[in-house]
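Lecture 7 notes: from sequence to structure.

We start with a single chain of 222 residues. Read the sequence below before looking at the structure.
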Amino acid sequence: MSSIEPAEKLSRKDKKGQTRERLIDAALSVVIEGGYKNLTMRKVTKCAGIAQPSFYSHFDSMDDLLSAAFERLRNHYIYPMQDMMLKMIKEGTEETLPLVISRMYSMLFDYYLSHPELFCLTTIDSKSGGAVGQRYREEYNGLREVWSDFFCRNAGVIGAEVEKQHADMVVDGVFAMIDALLLGYIESRYTDKAAMVELCSSFTLQQLSLATDKQHVNDSLK
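Now the structure, written as C-alpha cells:
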C-alpha cells in the first residue's frame, strides 16, 4: 500500500500572495453585490475572511487595492480579449470584413456572458460622483479611447479615412448597444444571441460604409 505524500506547505510569500488575491476577489464581490459606494475596508476584509488590521500588510490603502483590482481586470480579461479581437480584424480583408466583425462581436458576447461579473462592473454606479466611480469611469473611458484610436488607425482596410470625431461616435454607439443588449440578455428579456451579434455588426458595417462613401465624395471633389 503506497503512502500518500504530505501536501507541500506554502511559503510565507505564497500565503501572502494568496491573501492579496483574496482581497482583490473580495473587493470585486463587494462592488458587484452592493455598488462602488459600499466598497469599504471593513466589508472587503470581512468578505476576504481576514482581520481588518491585516489589510495593511497587503495594500497601503483602498486606492492601492482598487488599482490592483483594475490591473487584474486589464491584464487577465480586457487586454487578452481586446488583443484577440484586434488580431482578427487586422488579419481580415475588405472581402472578409463582415465575417470578421461578426465573429468579433460573437466572441465578445460569449466572453461577457461567461463572465457576467465583469459586465456588472460596467453598470453598477457608473454615474456616481464618488471617487471610486470616477476612477472606474477613467478606466472605462480609456478603453473607449483605445477602440476609437483603432478605428482611426485601421480604416485603411476598407479604403477610407475615419475622422476622430466619427470614430468616437461609432465607439460610443457600439458600447451603448453592447451594454443594453447584454443587460437585456442577463435579465432574460433577450434570448437570441445571434440577433444581438447581427445588430452590432450591421451598425458597425453601416458606419464604415458611410465613412467610405464620404471619402469617395471628398476625393471626387478634389
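The mean pLDDT is 77. Keep this in mind for problem set 3.
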